[in-house]
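Retro notes
What went well: the complex prediction finally ran end to end.
Inputs used:
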Amino acid sequence: MCDKDLLVGYVYDDITDIDRGRFERHLRECAACRAEVSSIRGVRDDLAAWIPPEPHLGCQVTQARRPSLRAWWTPALGLAAAAVIVLAAALAIANVEVTYTASGFSVRTGWARGDAGANAREGGSVRDGNDQILPAAQAAPAALTAMERRLSVLEAAARSAAPSSQRVSDTEILRRVRDLLSQSESRQQQELALRIAQVIRDVDAQRLADLSRIQQGLGRIDAMTTAEAAAHRDLANYILTSSRTQQK
Amino acid sequence: MPSSDEELVARAMGGDMDSFNQLVLRWERPIHALAYRVIGREEDARDVCQETFLRAYRALPGFKGQAKFSSWLYRIALNLCRDWIRRERRAPVAQAPEGVDLIELASEATPTESIEDLVARREIARAVARAMAELPEEQRTAIILKEYHGLTFQEIADLLDCPLSTVKTRLYQGLTVLRRQLADPGIPNGTALARRGMDEQADRT
């Protein structure tokens, strides 16, 4: 009786040296096991062809930051910080996305976009705590940019709401907003560069495919022409031979 | 030198989120591949992958290091896959692209691989996905963990809480079914198995 456990261990090389020796001796005598080892190796060759599609991952666990509630109600600083926080909170609640287009700018709200929708399908059960998974940048770049923008605003708000020493003037706030804007711009530029690179790669791939198709076509035409020329030559030879025979 | 999983886990347990995110970066592809092959849907596999890391992060204080971190992740992911299959009450889907886009293929081809070879590989992959989807879940899981993740029989037995011999039996039975399914010569250009069958026939004649 052949031991299938040994056979599987042997095929996957997950076997002790003693068992391997034992099974190799058995293989020399058992044609059925030899055939089985060979066919299972064939199955393994086929299994190797099954590669998952390139995933759009890049998830990260983040700790949701809550602005400190204490000591933010100091007159001038308080007003500025409160305005920023209220704005940020409103943006966060409404999931607002501001997009600039050729015709001006548009504001969209709602949760039913991109990965936000996918997450909602889970019943929200996993996203009710402080931790959250941010979806892949590639999957929803627009949503991510919006989210990053919101996060930056929230972070700035949290910083400005921090107690005592960090009193910030209007110019300081303006400077920060400008910084945020320039960061956002550079991010967008990077993304544009990425997209352009992708387009170039796609065009390249298409060019290669077209070229190979043209080459195949040319090869076929070449073969046909050669065959035809050969036929013509044969015919000419035949006519020549037959005309000589007639002359004789 | 990159830190080991154990070092990153220790730092993450001390509250260092960057260390945990390094672990995510290191393991998200294998976990996604595992989920994709077990449940057969790309989008759901991504959800399972995200959920796996979220649960791992929350359960991290309880991780005692008695198993490898990767085994622990695999266990969480497999449980989530099982939940998904139970919830959906259906067998995994063999998600195969409709038709073949040559241009898309051209960008995928390795320099040594012709378009024809690539098309043949795609066909075999589709046949494998279909055949795997029809296997019982425990056989499919055993094959996936051994074939694609290179776990030892002992690691698989620990992960699935079953005896070593059971793992080998499931693997053998699964492979036997796959062999029958993939030997079908209906697949264009043939699977490796079908080609072997033809070679043997040619040898005999």
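What we learned: The longest strand of chain A covers residues 97-101.
What to try next: split runs per interface for comparison.
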